[in-house]
Amino acid sequence: MKTSIRIHSLLMAGLAFLAMSCDQGNRAGNGALSSNIAEKVYIAPGERDEQYGFLSGGYSGNLTVYGLPSGRMFKEIPVFSQFPTSGYGYSEETKPMLNTSFGFVPWDDLHHPDISQTKGELDGRWIFANGNNTPRIARISLTTFETEEIIEVPNSAGNHSSSFITENTEYVVAGTRFSVPVPQRDMPISEYKSNFKGALTFIAVDPEHGHFNIKFQLIMPGFNYDLSHPGRDKSHGWFFFSTYNTEEANTLLEVNASQNDKDFIAAINWKKIEAYVNNGGGKKVPARYAHNVYDESTHTATSTIKEEVLTVDPSDVPGAIYFLPTPKSPHGCDVDPSGQYIIGSGKLSADITVHSFDKMLAAIDAKKFDGEAYGIPILNYDDILAGTVQSGGLGPLHTEFDGRGNAYTTFFISSEVVKWKLGTWEVIDRQPTFYSVGHLMIPGGNSRKPHGKYLVAMNKITKDRYLPTGPEMEHSAQIYDISGEKMQLLYDFPTHGEPHYAAGCDAELIVNNSKKIYRLDENKHPYAITSPAQAKVERKGNEVHIYMSTIRSHFTPDNIEGIKVGDKVYFHITNHEQDFDVPHGFSIIGQGTSEILIMPGQTKTSLWEPKRVGVWPFYCTDFCSALHQEMQGYVRVSPANANIELSWSLDE
Amino acid sequence: MKKASILMIIGSAMLLSLFVFPMWNIRLGAPQYPEPLGIDIYINGLRGESEFDIQNIDGLNHYIGMKTLPKPEEMWEFSVFPLVILAMSIMGILIGFLSIAGKLSSNWFLLWFVLMSILGILGMYDFNQWLVAYGTDLDPNAIMKLLNPDGTPMKYNPPLMGHKKLLNFDAYSYPRLGGVLMGIGMIFTLTAYFIGRSKVIKTR
Ligand SMILES: [Cu+2]
To answer: By three-state DSSP, how is residue A408 classified?
Structure first.
């Protein structure tokens, strides 16, 4: 065992050396000082970017919105993590969004955003994202830029080959990275082999409202399902998952899952399985998972625990699943815009493997198999190979496309992006990244119609790229102009959390649909008030409900008496503004949750549990007007046994 | 004569566009309002150029103690103006038809035009009175009480027509489609008079 580790680290050292020598050769040609590069990323004050970029925040649990090419960050959208800036996950309305079968889980590891599509082209309606840790899939509205729905994925663990969508947003697909006992049970870890399973989950998306419903879970052999992509155009109807650990190791995977020369890309004919399920196929099994939906009209989320899921055993649907042998623990599994090429990036390899969809179908037709694994036929590597890209780099991870016949692959170990030609497999250009790039993103680059002008490389290591900020630094991204034959490095920008992937699109797909306010006359929140005259305070036992409104620049009411120590005080605040970009905030001394930021026309609720007698101030946290500092009020808190009547007022 | 009469009918009928399109517009732009706030003035009431503009203008004006913008029932003008416009339009059309029938001479066109002009000037005078009252009759407890350099209280009435700087706001006041069509219609009726007169002279 020890020697194998030593050999392994020696090999890594060798790779690093190679990588460095590659870099040396490239750096000279990079004239980042030339002024025409500056012009390409310069967005003059008041002007706006051409494209949106949505970068995952990794362990921040959130999604960040950037402008391209400027690299300016516009917003952080809370998805799987509590977010004091808006009160997401703290307000009474949004707490249910983070409910799971494990209870309230206030964070996750957000990895792979994907924008909804129609006919294989981005439609800019929603963006989907996966929580990797406590398996969840989220849907975020691109009109409000708010998280509208989160569904937990049962029988899954390490929800990594997610959240990729089929070309008409029929399904958002979630595959498990870690195989686990299905159903979960108490058993020895050492009995992993053939007992653990990998669930691949197809979540149907309602075409009108986007609502989720788990259509079926495919219970696959106990490999690690790393990344996935849908077939598109000619291969629409198929889904491809890269796998590693086909060795089914349960310890020291670094070594033990790197033994097989080839792992698999699993090709799944989901249309076939869908038909099987529609005809009553599959087995309903007990499961527990949360389904959380945010309603824009009530401004409130509800969480429902579901008790059952439909599973499909691959052996019950013969002819729906095949394994494509792919060298060296493939990570990225990407499909070109025509749907013909399936690109496997063996992350321990120098070469990129490209499978041909046509050849795959031909081999399946001819029943030319090279054995099977758990009853799933394995195709012959040579029969399906379209070509290999002799890249000269090391550690390919992920590929996207520009729609002009070119592919761009990141190389983690040699720290570069390589541009190559589909069909001829020749390398056209290579540019270093700073440093150790993970994924890259070309807006629309995983659709039938890439908006291929810029490429964003998301790097794992920052080191010396910015002024130092102590041991911990934000990750760094680089933007390249890919409109010419050679890629041109334009700009570095820091990113938030750890972006694992991103999605992007032309700005016009989104700008005109972006909401400016919520209409007060459409507010159906049960505690909303549409006029300050309706403001009131009600007591139900030790619960006190305050119906409050805000307008520049006062709260109605702003003097409240009759609250007692031990009460649970709910401040239900409706923002009566109907003007773009005029939120009001609410905070009160000793607030054990967070402040809340209430958008125009919206109602939000903050729970406050006063612990001490006194007169306690509250105030608006958002600088809303010239009289923002005056936007304050007082709550009188009396002893628990006091008999002060409830009263409330404004300007009396 | 027939041509002139038809022009008279069209010109006076064009007043009816005021029931569909705004007559006048006042627009307020400021650094924090890159998309300006606007009031469209119709003969029967005020409407925001964007849905919530009236509410937002009132919200801003409360700082300087201005009254809220009037609802239709709060100003007699919004019920009287539509009647006057309707009556004038019908009268003009009637004059046109009667002149085709040879019952009236083109002098009636001029009479109509003069009457309409007097009413228009009265309307403008009334509108300006309101603007001045709106901009100067301020709440004594206003949050911000601003003075001119000479110590007199600042006035906030928007211009009757044209541009005026009001604190951080640029106010613009111009006719809109309804008002423009009314103006063109009136020019038509005047033109009808001149055409009619020249015909009469020729036939003599
Ligand atoms: Cu405020």
So the answer is: strand
Q: Which of B55, B57, B146 to mutate to test the interface with A (most CBs of A within 10 A)?
A: B55
Question: Cα–Cα distance between A246 and A373 in angstroms, integer?
Answer: 10
Whose tokens are 């599959």? That residue is: A282
CB A350 within 8 A of CB A389: no
Domain with CATH 2.130.10.10 in chain A: 74-325
Mean predicted confidence (pLDDT) in B12-21: 96
Of the options 1.25.40.10, 3.30.750.24, 2.130.10.10, 3.30.565.10, the CATH number for the domain spanning A74-325: 2.130.10.10
Give residue-wise pLDDT tens across range A359-394. 999 999 999 999 999 999 999 999 999 999 998 899
Which CATH number applies to A525-649: 2.60.40.420, 2.40.160.40, 3.40.50.1820, 3.20.20.80? 2.60.40.420
Residue B102 has pLDDT above 70, yes or no: yes
What separation in Å is there between the alpha carbon of B34 and the centre of ligand 1?
A: 21
**Cβ of residue B139 closer than 8 Å to a chain A Cβ:** no
Do the beta carbons of residue A385 and residue A353 sit within 8 Å? yes
Instruction: Give pLDDT tens digits for B175-197.
Output: 999 999 999 999 999 999 999 88
Q: Indicate the pLDDT class of residue A21, thresholds 50, 70 and 90.
A: very low
Which residues 508-527 of A have a C-beta within 8 angstroms of B?
A: 517
Average pLDDT over residues A268-275: 98
CA distance A173 to A137: 9
